[in-house]
């Protein structure tokens, strides 16, 4: 029987015309997609129903004073949308994360939450000229 998570992933696959995965790739229900040809997305579904979105946007090598300010300004806090969190890994790859609650993936809201994540990923990737 399909869970809300599985139905949500099926809706994303249909909406974005993504290749259908052969199944869950790891124990913790991980799906990997490339959206809009340049945004890699990993989707993790936890047993408690929470969903985590993860996208590695690319390496940021330039160091300048305004970078921290711009990163903080790019963090998108909203009471209506899932919070987006930006970070850098140890190789200076800019990473975007979001945590969705089960209610965030219901119906049209689920697609809107994912689109918000993808649109934000694209905007940040383009703003910082990441490859």
Work out the radius of gyration: 15 Å
Estimate the global geometry from the Cα principal axes. Answer: globular
- Summarize model confidence as the mean pLDDT: 81
As for the CATH topology, it is Yope Regulator, Chain: A
CATH class: Alpha Beta
Commentary on this structure:
- A hairpin with a 4-residue loop joins strand 4 and strand 5 (about 95-100).
- About 20% of the residues are buried.
- The chain has a single domain (about 5-115), classed as 2-Layer Sandwich (Yope Regulator, Chain: A).
- Helices cover about 30% and strands about 25% of the residues.
- The chain is an alpha+beta fold.
Features:
131 residues, alpha+beta, Yope Regulator, Chain: A, 3 helices, 32% helix, 27% strand, globular, Tir_chaperone, Type III chaperone protein ShcF
């Amino acid at each position: 029987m399909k869970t809300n998570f599985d139905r949500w992933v099926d809706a994303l696959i249909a909406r974005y015309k993504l290749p259908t995965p052969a199944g869950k790739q790891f124990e913790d229900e991980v799906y990997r997609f490339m959206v809009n040809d340049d945004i890699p997305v990993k989707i993790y579904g936890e047993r408690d129903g929470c969903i985590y979105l993860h996208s590695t946007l690319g390496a940021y090598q330039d160091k300048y004073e305004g970078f921290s300010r711009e990163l903080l300004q790019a963090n998108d806090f909203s009471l209506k949308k899932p919070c987006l969190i930006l970070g850098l890994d140890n190789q200076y790859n800019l990473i975007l994360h979001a945590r969705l609650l089960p209610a965030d993936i219901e119906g049209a809201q689920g697609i809107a939450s994912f689109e918000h994540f993808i649109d934000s990923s694209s905007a940040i990737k383009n703003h910082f000229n990441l490859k």
